[in-house]
Amino acid sequence: MQFEYAIEDGNFTKAGDASSSFKKILKQLNVDPQIIKRIVVSMYEGEVNIVAHANGGKVICNVDTSRVNIKLIDKGPGIPDIAKAMQAGYSTASAKVREMGFGAGMGLQNIKNNSDELNIKSEVGVGTTLEIIVNLPKAG
Amino acid sequence: MKLKDIVILLNAEVVSGHTKLEREVEAVFASDLMSDVLTIDSEKLLLLTGLVNIQTIRTSEMSDIKNIVLVRNKKATPEMIALAEENRIVIMQCSYSMYKTSGILFQSGINPVY
After folding, report:
1. Which domain holds residue A63?
2. Is A58 inside any structural domain?
């Protein structure tokens, strides 16, 4: 099953709408609540990053029986140094982002901690794609 | 401790989830930084925060936090209250500082998250 959500640039009022919608779907699919939490916390962090740093974008969520795969795709400025961006505390967030309670340089690390796999592809001036994979336990 | 007892301890005003005050709270986390809140994995948690915007409620929704106290006399916006009601989140407003609120709850025996 595939679900796609558009993310508006700079609209903090709507940041989290996609994650909230996907959370409702995961609940309907009877995914374990602890796993749902890991998935939506990761997705929400990524969603906030797109609102905060990129020029909007989209999220494509794929669910099958073994895993949830979330691709967060933006056409923002890109990340010049991914290793640096992964460092806890490193942030390029604006004052507005910090006012919203984010921008402390914890997001990517938190996504990594909550996912089974995190892949980041980024090109300066082109955009960034985050792929988050969370494995689902075998049924039964 | 039940939410209804916390309301009395903090002289708080309940602005959403009025019918859910029998809920038990087992731990408290205090932060204005939502990135910090998103790292917490505790059940029956109460969040103390002075951050008043829609992301406070979104963060709580994602983290399965059902109970919030807004400190420093901060007031929830109508959008926050509507989203909280939709997610069965209780919001209480309290005029005390974060430090005083934390102190009262700690003294009453509620555990910190860590």
Report:
1. 2-135
2. yes
The answer, as to whether pTM is greater than 0.90, is: yes
CATH code, A46? 3.30.565.10
Total domains, chain A: 1
Cα B98 to Cα A70, B28, B48, B94: the distances in Å are 37, 12, 7, 10
In a domain, A32, yes or no: yes
- Compute φ and ψ for A123, nearest 5 degrees: -130, 125
Residue B20 DSSP class: G
Phi, psi of B110 (to 5 degrees): -80, 135
Residue A45 belongs to a domain: yes
Tens of pLDDT, residue by residue, chain B (114 residues): 999 999 999 999 999 999 999 999 999 999 999 999 999 988 899 999 999 999 999 999 999 999 999 999 999 999 999 999 999 999 999 999 999 999 999 999 999 999
User: With a CB-CB cutoff of 8 Å, which residues 55-74 of chain A face chain B?
Assistant: none
Tell me the angle at which helices A17-28 and A33-53 cross, rounded to the nearest 10 degrees: 160
Nearest CA in chain B to A104: B35
- Nearest CB partner across the interface for A110, out of B39, B56, B61: B39
Structural domains for chain B: 3-112 (3.40.1390.20)
Question: Are the Cβ atoms of A16 and B34 closer than 8 angstroms?
Answer: no
Q: By the CB < 8 Å criterion, does A40 face chain B?
A: yes
Chain B residue with minimal CA distance to A113?
B39
In a domain, A70, yes or no: yes
Q: Hey, is the C-beta of B85 within 8 angstroms of any chain A C-beta?
A: no
Question: What pLDDT digit, counting tens, does each position of A76-91 carry?
Answer: 999 999 999 988 888 8
